[in-house]
Design goal:
Layout: E1 2-7, E2 13-21, E3 24-34, H1 37-54, E4 80-82, H2 84-96, H3 104-115, H4 120-129, H5 137-166, E5 173-182, E6 206-213, E7 219-226, H6 235-246, E8 252-255, H7 262-270, E9 275-279, H8 286-294, E10 302-306, E11 312-317, H9 319-341, E12 359-362, E13 366-369, H10 371-376, E14 383-388, H11 394-402, H12 405-417, H13 428-454, H14 461-468, E15 472-477, E16 483-487, H15 492-504
Parallel strand pairs: 5-8, 8-9
Antiparallel strand pairs: 1-2, 2-3, 4-15, 5-6, 6-7, 9-14, 10-11, 11-14, 12-13, 15-16
């Protein structure tokens, strides 16, 4: 990039900022045109200042030269690269201990999953643009094969050791939940199968991803399952694997109502686990339901009911939850009424999915809404149940259960920020490697988020990542013709991010 004095046929002179790319000059900006020497000199000085601002106010002019030729004249895009991700996330990566994995590509994959998530083809292009010319899609695929067979257990060891350290050396409570990851391919196989999709992609093959996290959302481990797996059958295998692998000291297991089953509760108790699991109070025994109906609830009240299986059911009430339940139920009813009036409902709609439970058959052919059932459901507005075999108080049980939102946040981060889905891989080993990379990326993301919070840096993680992606370095030649790497000046938020990383790691 350089300044050009263009002499026109009219005798005037135009001052322009030019970028030379692939032997062609491209006009970046025209500063001005004049026939007056003083004004031309003024335009030239403006061009110098403008060019400096383009490179974050970095002054790279050779003042000793008579014509003040820019040192950066002739630079190409290959001489400018993004260095922020390495400066920020590379340091976190090494601090956690992942630098003990010898292949540099592992770091590139995990960091770029945070800063430039996308397909492996786009990743290869990004890495090539930033000085890693020898990396191709084939290189990436070969490494994924190696990761799933050679490094996966090492990755798990490093992740678990760091999370345990962060949590004070003891993992006393774990949170478990599942989500679905869908594939663009329409061809299922023994792993990628169609099933109930939490993403609403019921027509796409999918896998189930089970995630185990500790307090504050730090990841402990993960497991993948076939796409048609019933999520209630995944909890015990995951706990057993990590119990044997890391010798966990029987932590309290917290999970939502989707994992509530007699088999799970029986196996948890048999294996010596304490648990807190969301309850489906309307599905409790008639005896328990009658006890709940006899209770007069008020804002914030928590009632304890002893169950016959030596567990305890806590039931809480919230006005805010009651308003939300009523609003959701009313919205569901209006949708049913609209579809019924439009003639879009048939016998196939009569099931217990969502608000279809309010539909009933009248005679042999008519479908109508059961308003009595709709009104009866209002008695449950604002109520939430929790089943436990611990000795914790009701408030302690609810406090632990409410931390489940952190695992939901982990899934949200993985699906949106890290773009873990859709998955384009077909081979199982590469699918497993893709999940492994995303798992490590989430740990880096989580550590970055906590560092920003610790130092009260009031910027969202997404904005901080965006600022990191705009930290540049250029390579110029010094007066001896040797390459010189110069980091461009950071703006305020970029420098604050680097200060946080420097202080913390």
């Amino acid at each position: 990039m350089f300044i050009r004095k263009k002499v026109n046929r009219s005798g005037s002179t135009t001052i322009q900022i030019i970028h030379k790319f692939q032997r062609r000059n491209r006009i970046i900006k025209t500063i001005g045109t004049s026939i007056d020497a003083k004004e031309i000199d003024k335009f030239y000085r403006i061009a110098q200042s403008t060019l400096s601002k383009i490179f974050n106010q970095l002054t790279l002019f050779d003042a000793s030269s008579d014509n003040k030729t820019s040192v950066i004249e002739g630079l190409s895009n290959d001489d400018i690269k993004v260095v922020g991700p390495e400066l920020v996330f590379g340091k976190i990566f090494s601090h956690i201990g992942f630098n003990s994995i010898p292949d540099e590509l592992f770091k590139d994959l995990t960091i770029s999953r945070i800063t430039h998530p996308g397909s492996k083809l786009k990743l290869a292009e990004y890495l090539q643009e930033n000085g890693k010319k020898d990396i191709s899609v084939d290189n990436i695929y070969r490494f994924l094969d190696k990761l799933s067979t050679k490094y996966k257990y090492q990755v798990e060891d490093i992740s678990f050791a760091y999370t345990k350290k962060i949590l004070g050396g003891t993992i006393s409570v774990v949170f478990y939940d599942m989500t679905t990851i869908y594939f663009e391919s329409s061809q299922p196989d023994e792993l990628r199968m169609t099933g109930f999709s939490k993403d609403g992609k019921h027509q796409n093959p999918q896998i189930f991803l089970g995630l185990l996290v500790g307090v504050n959302g730090y990841p402990i481990g993960y497991e993948i399952f076939e796409g048609n797996t019933f999520e209630g059958h995944t909890l015990i295998p995951v706990l057993d694997r990590f119990q044997k692998r890391f010798d966990l000291d029987k932590p309290i297991v917290v999970a939502d109502a989707g994992l509530l089953s007699k088999d799970n509760l029986h196996n948890l108790k048999k294996d010596g686990y304490s648990f807190i699991i969301g309850a489906r109070i309307k599905n409790e025994s008639r005896n328990i339901i009658e006890k709940i109906k006899q209770i007069i609830f008020s804002e914030g009240s928590v009632e304890k009911i002893e169950k016959e299986d030596n567990t305890v059911l806590f039931v809480s009430y919230s006005d805010k939850r009651a308003k939300k339940d009523a609003s959701n139920r009313e919205r569901g009813l209006k949708r049913l009424e609209k579809n019924l009036n439009a003639g879009r409902l048939t016998k196939s709609n009569i099931n217990n999915r969502g608000y279809n439970k309010y539909l009933k058959m009248s005679g042999n052919i008519d479908i109508e809404i059961n308003y009595e059932k709709y009104q009866a459901d209002s008695n449950w507005d604002g109520l939430k149940g929790y089943i436990t075999n611990t000795n914790l108080s009701g408030s302690e049980v609810i406090s632990n259960y409410n931390n489940l939102w952190k695992i939901e946040k982990a899934f949200r981060i993985s699906k949106t920020d890290l773009k873990i889905r859709p998955v384009y891989h077909r081979l199982r080993r590469r699918i497993e490697a893709h999940i492994c990379v995303s798992f490590v990326s989430y740990l880096l993301y989580k550590e970055f988020e906590n560092a920003l919070k610790k130092y009260d840096l009031r910027v969202s993680v997404s904005k901080a990542i965006e600022a990191t992606n705009k930290m540049y370095e250029i390579t110029i030649q010094d007066e001896n013709g040797l390459p010189r790497h110069v980091k461009l000046k950071n703006n305020k938020i970029q420098q604050e991010i680097l200060d946080v990383i420097s202080n913390e790691y």
